[in-house]
Amino acid sequence: MPNRKLNYKEVSEKLVSQLKEYLKASGQKGFIVGVSGGIDSALVSTLCAMTGEKVTVMDLPIHQKNDEVNRANNHMNWLQENFPNIERYSIDLTETFETFKKALPGISDETTRYMAYVNSRSRLRAVTLYAIGNEKNAIVAGTGNKVEDYGIGFFTKYGDGAVDISPIGNLYKSEVYEMARFLGINDEILKARPTDGLHPNGATDEDQIGCSYDELEWAMNKHDEFMSIITSNGIMWNDKKSNENFLESFSGRKKEVMKIYLSRHFASAHKMVIPKVFEI
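Now predict its structure.
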């Protein structure tokens, strides 16, 4: 858990102000947000709505569980009840996704494509958001938080990571919950277990990652402190020996969690930088 104590009224007002400033500078006409029924997209769509600018919210199910679809629709209903600037769409992409799968070359063992299909679901949603966004001259607002996007890279490259802005990218997951609670977001979203909604088996985020967000926040804070020390001494952030020694300074569950964090952090580093441009 982060040590900082945020004033959520001040932080939410600051984020809304930055959203308005960015939109004005961009010359675009509004925001577009994919709403999943989860806490992050609920918060981002609410912050965008608070700008008073035009906001398009979209539910884009692909073989989605009913409770996820219901939460997304209930949140969009809540937005429309509380903000006059909301336009909504629900577009079921299940048939489109199945058509895409059939267009791929045949393969003897479909299980080898499991993660490719998982990530393709996310990318299909991104394509749809940008299609409607282009039509409406809207900025695609990302829904990733600090620990997911910039800690362990728990997003799909060119999928839910394909965004124009990241309004809550500096908020830890625990802070996302606190701000959502402060802004009056529905209890059913606050109580739902976090999931990316991409896995047919219904795996939650914790199932996939192997630890809780509270544990990840602890690991991220510890590793950030360590990074500040070694980089100030001229050691590269990805120095293998330094990070191995850092990991060995922990034991038990803390070591398990830190190992998960470091493994995902370094494996996902390529997601967090612009593509490599080669010299000529």
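The CA atoms of residues 122 and 159 lie 5 Å apart.
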